[in-house]
Amino acid sequence: TITQPTRFSSRGFIHKERMSFTTSTISSCTVHDVRFPTSLTGDGSDAMNTECDYSAAYVILHTNPPLKDAQGKNLEGHGMTFTIGRGNEIVCSTIELIFNRLLVGKDTETLFADMGKTFYMLTGDSQLRWIGPEKGVIALATAALVNGLFDLFAKTRNKPLWKLLTDMSPEDFVKLIPFKYITDFITPEEALEMLKSRNATKQAREEKVAKVGYPAYTTSVGWIGYSDEKVVRLTKEAIHEGFTHFKLKVGAGPESDRTRVGLVKSIISDPSNFPSTYVKPRESTLVGKNATKTGCVLMVDANQVWSVPEAINYMRTHILEFEPWFIEEPTAPDDALGHATIRKNLVDIPNVKATDGSGKTTIGVATGEHAHNRMTFKQLLQAKAIDVCQIDSCRMGGVNEVLAVLLMAAKAGIPVCPHAGGVGLCELVIHLSLIDYLSISGPDLSPSDAIDDSPLPIPNVLEYVEHLHEHFVYPIKMSNKGTYLLPDENTCGYSIEMKPETFSVWTYPNGSYWKGDKSVAKDLYNH
Q1: What is the DSSP letter of 101?
Q2: Residue 15 is a catalytic residue
Q3: Where is 128: in which H helix or E strand?
Q4: How far is C-alpha 357 from the chain's CA centre?
Q5: pTM for the complete prediction?
């Protein structure tokens, strides 16, 4: 049994004088290759990825003797990484390889006592590292295991993951961060001072976000495989669900793109499409976003289909008049200098149709969902290549590495708007956005902000897609104002636990759907 001294929670209650945590060993894992045929409906489709079957390389960590919750239920660590179908089996095999080499037999409380050291242990095997290093399949598999360990860690403390981490002292929090290779951008000492500067006002931010939720944007209106009629319907529905930020996929061709982007821009600019209860977002959160007069914001996403010159020409020639806030993934995700060149050429473009009457428009650049690791983000930030940082909960090596990027982005003054277009990603990234807002980048609140029901005073918005949440034990919860509500169940961990029946139907190739029972796919068509 491991004991810890008394600590005050940021919610104000006092833990018992000595908290006891039963230790155990990581004894085995169960890996599932879970695939959903979302390509049937065009969900997730874009100019690069035209045939997406949302998939999860999913791991469940078991302990011996079994760790248990207060009700005597066995605790398990659930983790996953995201793919879009073929190749998911390769990630699953790699999860098993890393687990059997590095994790089996390890003491749980030793792992939890220094999760920064645990991250280095999982990424430090020289032979496994060689096939990365810290990128590609090896990083995806590492993310699943790291996410599973953090899920188990949070469950043993009877807290949601975001609460576990934001309740940590700045000194304990900074120990989670893998600073190797990024100290030329941010040092542990700088990070510690940043965390300390946010610590005193963290409680007020937590009470505020618990009241109003975390702001979201929707991508579900604009997958490239949707018809124009469906895009129009979904955009109008999203307005009535409280969304003010809308993202569409582009890159299929000028005629199609201009039609679809024009449709959405006209809908979100027309006050007659809004309910009488609509409240325009505060101006301070819309600065630099090319917002419409209704306070709505348009974004576009090319998913890497262009070269650098093509991206510049396409945006200036075909998309400029619609004034999106940003173009996401305009070119290859590893090309930091290419992104910087694109960004430089999308500043103050002459535009007689500029909404603000200035005669010029700036379109920002966003990327990150395919950035392999913290070093790629470091280079993007050093090169001043992005206006928006888009971390992914599964692309890098899991929670530790994401925290490193959140700190670097905060130092650079770049808002983090996480990627969540995929199965389970919404469930994961709300925890990460809450950690960012509460412990890293959230501003001090004015006296009025602290007590009223106004939205959070931040430019950040977290991606939302409506697909597949019903497969999770702790699915995301959304308000009618287009905001994520807090995962507040003490037992939810990292919110990624899938329902057992999901495995029996959607595991590839032996789940009932993949063995021929197509009737179970009817729910995919509901939207």
Answers
A1: I
A2: no
A3: helix 126-130
A4: 35
A5: 0.95
Helices (H), 244-317: 254-269, 308-314
> Of 245, 289, 419, 481, which one is the catalytic site residue?
419
Q: One of 135, 155, 249, 378 is an active-site residue; which one?
A: 249
Report cis status (omega within 30 of 0) of the bond before 65: yes
Say whether 372 is catalytic: no
What is the per-residue pLDDT across 402-412, written as a single tens digit (0 to 9) for each?
999 999 999 99
CB 95 within 8 A of CB 128: no
> Mean pLDDT over residues 456-477, rounded?
96
Task: Round to whole Å and give the CA distance between 420 and 429.
Answer: 7
Q: Rounded to 5 degrees, what angle do the CA atoms 306, 311, 313 make? A: 130
Could you tell me the two tokens for 512? 């009932």
- Per-position DSSP letters for 382-419, written without gaps between them: HTT--SEE---TTTSSSHHHHHHHHHHHHHHT--B---
Residue 52: CA atoms inside 13 Å, Cβ hemisphere, count?
24
C-alpha to C-alpha distance for 426 and 483, rounded to whole angstroms: 12
Element (H, E) at 195: helix 188-199
Q: How far is CA 494 from CA 278, 381, 393, 453, in A?
A: 33, 28, 11, 27
Alpha-carbon distance of 526 to 227, in angstroms, equals 16
DSSP symbol at 507: B
